[in-house]
Amino acid sequence: MKILFLTEGGEQNGLGHITRCSALAAAGKQLYPTANIRFVIDSDSGAKELLLAGLAGNIDILCWRKVLDEVLELARGSDMVVIDSYFADREVYEAISGVTGGCTIMIDDYCRLDYPAGIVVNPSAFVDKEKYLSKDGVVYFLGSEFIVLRKEFCNVPDKKIRDVVENVLITFGGTAEGTFMGDVERELKGRFGDGVTVVAPSRELVDAAGMLELMLDADICISAGGQTTYELARVGVPTVCVCFADNQRFNIKGLSDGGFLEYAGNVDDVDMLAKIAGGVDALEDMETRKARSLTGRSLVPGDGAVNVFLKAAEVFGIKAGT
Length: 322
Known about the structure:
The chain has 11 helices and 12 strands.
């Protein structure tokens, strides 16, 4: 069994796609222990340390969309190809689907393209299913049962909810380095002092186990609306969310409408620091945090990555364990 992952990420564009592919790769290894896994990642130098430490398999770092002939050769020799990208155009997907006979898993967060033959996975708590047009050769995996989590977040211990807020975690991925993050950090340190912890690519890299530990210890998290929000929900960390990009809105809507997130608004909104502070105020009550924690855990199951591969194997006619 050979599985090829094509994705992107780094300091400038965040690590969500890489994190998601890493989780899928782990699930693939669980189901296919002898699988040969290869990553081709369009990444800046800021993610290289994470890539080498956190991904099991062969890793090539290059802008794969611009060397399509090379990528097609790799795809021809693979049993399935997983593509997680916001930058690849339809022609790239179509070429890869063509050489794999449709054995292609295409991760999509917001119905970005009219995809060719294969499986389209929207791993979101909220999916506008009417936007996905049914077409021959395309199978759709849509909704929370396909939310992809790193293995460390699949089976998590119960979270302790403190009487008062002591520890606040700030994590915006690679999307908010600089002035905004510094402003949020100063605002919250003025209120919670040394209980504030910041996780960012430009600082010390934190692996999945380390991130889980930080989340279990956090009373509240201030987060962007990307992949991390699902890990926060799974752990049950009451969260104030800031939207940094349109592709995060479905994540935010699903987790906010479901009763987990306290949504502060768009990063460009006026008085964003005051809105974040208001979100923190709304979560200070212990009973409120306890309810949000339980809700988050109920919204995000822990077996989404395995579900993707199990159902994909059925579609592609591949036997588990091969």
